[in-house]
Write a structure and sequence with these properties.
By secondary structure, this protein is of the alpha+beta class. It has helices spanning about 20-25, 45-60, 65-80; strands at about 35-40, 40-45. It is built from three helices and two strands; from the N terminus they run αββαα. The chain has a two-stranded antiparallel sheet with strand order 1-2.
Amino acid sequence: MSGTYKVMMGDRGRLVVPAPVREEAGLSEGTPLMLMATPSGIVVMTREQLKARVRAELAGTDLVDALLAERRIVAADEGAA
């Protein structure tokens, strides 16, 4: 999916997703969408797209080791005080 579409903010903050985008993304009435504010702008995606994005960003990251390393630093700082 690619392209740029002009949309207008409607009353009560509503946006209309253009038909070609809805069709290509398989969106229908009632499909939950996630809106994410990023430093480069606003991103709208489905829950599945958001899950995939988070998984990709965390791929290869050992969260347990990162947490333990952070806790060791905090403990060392507290022990030095």
